[in-house]
Amino acid sequence: MAGQGQRLTVVPTVTMLAVMKARLVGATRGHALLKKKSDALTVQFRAILKNIVSTKEAMGDIMKNSSFALTEAKYVAGENIKHVVLESVQTASVKVRSRQDNVAGVKLPKFEYFSEGDTKSNDLTGLARGGQQVQKCRVAYVKAIEVLVELASLQTSFLTLDEAIKTTNRRVNALENVVKPRIENTITYIKGELDELEREDFFRLKKIQGYKKREIERQRASAIGFAEDQIAEKLSLSKGISMASAQNMLAAGAKDEDIIF
């Protein structure tokens, strides 16, 4: 993996270890949330794909019926029916508006058709000739417009979801294969360095204790030697002998335990 064997450049301290652990917790939670988001988007993506397939299948029949209806209207009312229809239309009877749906934080555009205005004047179109076929053609093309608007909405949502899923999956993979392994390797490195520092401190304390023990023994031996010299001096003065003789007597007395001070 990309993040295996790599770590962040940090100072191995206890504070940094706590920071890295907090970052690991945040990365784990973020990975879980992004994974759930990706699953939700994938479910919606598949549902939209299913609707697109069914809508396209229905669109074939609807467009075929509308084309036949237009042919029948032209046959009955004549080829000049187009100008008559254009003159009778004042405003559009079918319009499209857009809105947004929120799916797991992703805004999907939705298109809706709606009718407004008075369309009764259009009922007189082709009254002299072929009026019924013109109305059938109008109804057929209104259905075609409705299907096209629905298909446009599904296609737009499909493309938006596809891009959102790719982005989310890239983030999930980055967290799983790069960010989290690096943080885990950094935590392992910091723990190893802290353990090594702890071992160094323990060794240093043992050396200091050994030095202090040797220093205490040296001071004790020096104090004992000083006390023996004082006693030998007193003994030499009291008995009128030399220091060497006094020290020899002290040594012999210490062995035989015959001299009491």
Automatic annotation (TrEMBL):
InterPro entries: V_ATPase_D. Gene3D superfamilies: 1.10.287.3240. It holds the Pfam family ATP-synt_D. GO terms for molecular function: proton-transporting ATPase activity, rotational mechanism. Keywords: Ion transport, Transport. Belongs to the V-ATPase D subunit family. NCBIfam families: V_ATPase_subD. This is Vacuolar ATP synthase subunit D. It comes from Linum tenue.
